[in-house]
Amino acid sequence: MGIVNVTPDSFYDGGRYEALDAARERVARLLAEGADILDIGGESSKPGAPRVSSEQQIARISGALDAALAQGALVSVDTASPAVASFALGRGAHAINDVTCLGDAELASVVARHEAFLIVSHARAHQSEMRDFSEWPDSDYSDVAAEVRRELASARERAVERGVRRDRVWFDPGLGFSKNARQSIELLSRVAELSSDGTPVVVGAGRKSFIKSLDGSAPADRLGGTIAASVWASRHGAHFVRVHDVAAVRQALLVEAALVRSGAAGANPP
Fold first, then answer.
1. What predicted TM-score, i.e. pTM, was given to this entire model?
2. Is residue 165 helix, strand or coil?
3. Which amino acids are annotated catalytic?
4. Correct CATH for 2-267 of 3.20.20.20, 3.40.50.300, 3.30.70.60, 3.30.70.100
5. Could you say which of 29, 38, 93, 141 would form a disulfide bridge with 88 (CB–CB 3.0 to 4.6 Å)?
6. Alpha-carbon span 198 to 176, nearest angstrom
């Protein structure tokens, strides 16, 4: 899943793809690099980012959305706004990526009306209420993986009550959202627990601040950590990885898959 942020303030690529031509080029590049899904967002989800009106989000995402759909791409739109979701799905988007753990159940009603997919990302607060990257009390979780799984399942039940098909609700552990670095790393290490009932899982580890906790790196220098986290997630139950760096991560996943196949063939010769 390739990230298309058409925002001025996203933590890694804010401002790069605001202009229509830049957004279109971003869409074309990610598809050429092998993205299976494009995730388009018009509101930053970094800690402390202000809320953005539905009208402003729609104005930001329209060009990228149209460009992606014109090329036949599968598209999710990153929003917690029912109005933005209605616009995007009406235009032809296939999924809504909600980083608020269904803070507004009306969002699910919109998804249901369009028979679309809903990605529920775990969080315990809106990004505007988060203080800083990977800062969250250790005491807020007694068992981070179990609690995240339970809260995602609860959000899914609320979505199903609003008419979303159960098999169209996917889980995202929300690395870095309402979690400190240690909690994010533990959650990633136990990602298989989120898909224990077969629920598709999306993991977004791309250049996130838990990587910084290990080596002090800036976002621009976290590609290695992104690749390692994405390969781990894929190997341990994630169905999709959400990244800025599609070509590099896809290549790593292909190599890892080839090694697994080769090892299996060597252990069980025909």
1. 0.93
2. coil
3. 208, 242
4. 3.20.20.20
5. 93
6. 24
